[in-house]
Amino acid sequence: MTDSKPALRPARVGVIGAGNVGSTLARRILELDLADVVLLDVIPGRTQGLALDLNQAQAILGGNVQVIGTESYQDLNHVDLIVITAGFPRKPGMSREDLLKINGELVQSITLKALAQAPQACLIVVTNPLDVMTHLAWQVSGLPKPRVMGMGGVLDSARFARFTATALGISARDIRAMVLGAHGDLMVPLPQYTTVHGIPLTALLPAAEIQALVARTRNGGAEIVNLLKSGSAYFAPAAATAEMIAAILGDQQRIMPASVVLAGEYGIADICMGVPIKLGAAGVSQILELNLSDDQQTALQASAASIGENIALLRNILEPEMV
Ligand SMILES: NC(=O)c1ccc[n+]([C@@H]2O[C@H](COP(=O)([O-])OP(=O)(O)OC[C@H]3O[C@@H](n4cnc5c(N)ncnc54)[C@H](O)[C@@H]3O)[C@@H](O)[C@H]2O)c1
């Protein structure tokens, strides 16, 4: 008996940068059987070696997707989604401007080369400083706003959920946390929109305890960096990015925070910053505007001002016509 239906091609995701985050993301995508992964890095042989290892793991784990390792952008031909994880961390003695320049030049050139191969793709930026790099990628890509986003809020919300679950002695599965604003010290965790199976956190913990959780969440990345001594978090960042990829490839219309181009939402325009979005196959189909307290609105404006300053700084560093 023959099946008349044409075989469906698995979705294909390009992951650029095969360091800690990129390689862990490839593994996560395989574990979820989400899509074939084209893993690209500049280090010769690295992605081919990782691909062999990951595909051999897949033979044990099961699933139908695979990883293709490459240094060539041509292999990104017609991928459905591009994820940029290439980037360098700030090293001792390096200024904020130095990091902006190094990662800015990288994100600029990667975006142009990747989009030339897959002009219809959605773009997820992971490289830090996240909101500034997402804005840069959007500007150089020429893509419509809904198809460009940065991963920050899903990770920050997961950290808030984890700390909250521990404080309450419950499963993190029952927590839906919401963190907006810049992906960094100036993020704005929202306790009234963080719920335990529908119950607002504000009804479950005293304000002082919530403030301690908020402070730990703001410091969540640095806490890990200090313990690791070299490098930064990658398991949770990879899981968070995979969550966004699944929402897009599965047209799930999930609600989650992500860094997107704002055009007046929350009174903020012309920058990228973390806000709640609806995410599906066409990318960002909606930006949700929540009622915030005066303090939270002020904190969000401070986030936006800091991102705006860094975007202006990057504009002076890079070729003016590119930013
Ligand atoms: N948004 C977030 O929440 C979040 C979380 C974790 C890490 N990050 C950021 O993600 C980036 C990567 O972190 P990591 O821990 O994987 O770093 P890493 O140093 O382990 O990996 C970076 C990789 O990028 C590669 N690379 C450098 N230049 C490249 C280029 N031109 N093309 C392709 N690949 C290139 C390197 O060879 C390396 O393999 C950093 O900027 C980090 O700050 C963001």
Indicate the structural class: alpha/beta
Helical run tally: 9
Which strand order does the major sheet show? 3-2-1-4-5-6
The ordered H/E elements are: EHEHEEHEHEHEEEEEHHHEEEH
Percent of residues in helical segments?
A: 40-55%
Indicate the proportion of strand residues: 15-25%
Largest sheet, described in full?
6 strands, parallel
Distinct ligands: nicotinamide-adenine-dinucleotide
Shape: globular
Low-confidence stretches: none
Rg from C-alpha positions?
20 Å
Brief account:
This protein is of the alpha/beta class. It contains nine helices and 14 strands. The chain has helices spanning 20-31, 46-61, 96-117, 130-141, 153-168, 207-218, 220-228, 235-249, 294-317; strands at 12-16, 36-40, 67-70, 81-84, 122-125, 148-150, 175-176, 179-181, 187-189, 195-196, 199-200, 254-263, 269-280, 283-287.
Keywords summarizing the entry:
single chain; 323 residues; alpha/beta; 6-stranded parallel sheet; 3-stranded antiparallel sheet; 9 helices; 43% helix; binds nicotinamide-adenine-dinucleotide
Give a written overview of the molecule.
With 323 residues, this protein is of the alpha/beta class. It has helices spanning 20-31, 46-61, 96-117, 130-141, 153-168, 207-218, 220-228, 235-249, 294-317; strands at 12-16, 36-40, 67-70, 81-84, 122-125, 148-150, 175-176, 179-181, 187-189, 195-196, 199-200, 254-263, 269-280, 283-287. β8 and β9 form a beta hairpin. The mean pLDDT is 94. The structure holds nicotinamide-adenine-dinucleotide. The site of nicotinamide-adenine-dinucleotide has 31 residues, from α1 and α3.
